[in-house]
């Protein structure tokens, strides 16, 4: 099933490729996003869904000095977030705080809490501790993985440990295992590497196509989802890592982003350079769907592709489920268009 969007739109002034759910805002459905302009002053937009769910309101607009290539909201403080940025010549990473009185200021400035210095090559992403309050951060560049300790009160970040993947490897991103906080998956060209943060050593890997994104299933242990150039989405059971347990081919070009629903097992979003967002309901085990999923009948056969949102005009690089209202998600296309949708109309009937 495919068609246009009935969602709520919001336009950024410049191009953009990253958006994040503001998980720590438990009173509102909020998202934060940032722009990617080489020549103009970049912006961070704090967006909030209205109480009636009919309007996307900009609650804060803040200047950011450089192009934003990665952005993640802090899971325990709604005013804190991280960015990876480029000056055009080099990459950097920092943790920022939104000013407390930003609603009363004409031109609020973000406060830089800490710079994550020490990277030599291109920084690719920052990962926050999966949930709850913790001072640990991970940053990944082309060749290295850093584990940081963040002290917001002292406005400082210290490297706790660092390890190199080696010059023959090219790290591009990663995900922190929500079921095992000592485990991190790092994407690396045609494989995903698994690292133990206690030893900072690689423990294993799975071979796959050119991986562009990766996410853990937050509801089920051992399940990992990868987005790949040529083969769409693969679902892996890490206890049986040689072959994927499910393969979803729904994009006509590169699959750039994938994210698992924070509450409902088997619900997955993917976005790609075919200007499409796909909404999937896919089995994450060798068994059929379980009673813990959104479909009660274990014998019901379903097309895993529930809906395709295909009226975007540019590549979709950013996807974020709302942790507060897990049937709502935000998408971001490269032309700076944010769309907030509800998947309720497309859920399978029991």
From TrEMBL:
Record-linked SMART domains: WD40 (SM00320)
Q: Where are the WD repeats?
A: 248-280
* GO BP of this protein: protein ubiquitination
- Highest taxon in the source lineage: Eukaryota
Q: Name one Pfam family in it.
A: Beta-prop_EIPR1
Where in the numbering of this chain does the EIPR1-like beta-propeller domain appear?
Answer: 5-280
Keywords (alphabetical) are:
Repeat, WD repeat
| Family, as annotated | Belongs to the WD repeat EIPR1 family.
**PANTHER family reported in the protein's UniProt record:** EARP AND GARP COMPLEX-INTERACTING PROTEIN 1, WD-REPEAT PROTEIN
Tell me what this protein is called.
WD repeat-containing protein DWA2-like isoform X2
């Amino acid at each position: 099933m495919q068609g246009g969007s009935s969602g709520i739109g919001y336009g950024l002034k410049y191009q953009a490729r990253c958006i994040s759910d503001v998980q720590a805002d438990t009173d509102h459905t909020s998202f934060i996003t940032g722009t990617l302009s080489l020549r103009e002053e970049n912006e961070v937009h704090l967006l909030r869904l209205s109480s009636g769910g009919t309007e996307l309101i900009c609650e804060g607009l803040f200047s950011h000095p450089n192009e934003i290539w990665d952005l993640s909201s802090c899971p325990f403080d709604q005013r804190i977030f991280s960015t990876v940025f480029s000056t055009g010549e080099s990459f950097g990473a920092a943790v920022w705080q939104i000013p407390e009185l930003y609603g009363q200021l004409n031109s609020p400035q973000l406060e830089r809490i800490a710079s994550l210095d020490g990277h030599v090559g291109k920084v690719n992403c920052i990962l926050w501790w999966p949930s709850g309050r913790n001072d640990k951060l991970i940053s990944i560049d082309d060749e290295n993985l850093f584990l940081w300790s963040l002290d917001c009160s002292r406005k400082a970040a210290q490297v706790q440990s660092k390890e190199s993947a080696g010059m023959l490897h090219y790290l591009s991103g990663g995900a922190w295992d929500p079921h095992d906080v000592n485990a991190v998956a790092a994407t690396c060209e045609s494989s995903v590497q698994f690292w133990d943060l206690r030893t900072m050593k690689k423990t294993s890997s799975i071979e796959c196509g050119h991986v562009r994104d990766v996410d853990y299933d937050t509801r089920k242990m051992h399940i990992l989802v990868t987005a790949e150039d040529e083969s769409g989405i693969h679902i892996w059971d890490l206890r049986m890592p040689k072959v994927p347990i499910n393969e979803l081919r729904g994009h006509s070009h590169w699959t750039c982003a994938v994210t698992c629903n924070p509450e409902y097992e088997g619900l997955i979003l993917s976005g790609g350079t075919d200007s499409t967002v796909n909404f999937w309901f896919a089995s994450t085990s060798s068994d059929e769907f379980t009673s813990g999923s959104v479909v009660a009948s274990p014998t019901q056969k379903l097309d895993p592709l529930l809906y395709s949102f295909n009226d975007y005009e540019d590549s979709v690089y950013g996807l974020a489920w709302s942790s507060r209202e897990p049937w709502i998600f935000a998408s971001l296309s490269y032309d700076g268009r944010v769309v907030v949708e509800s998947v309720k109309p497309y859920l399978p009937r029991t």
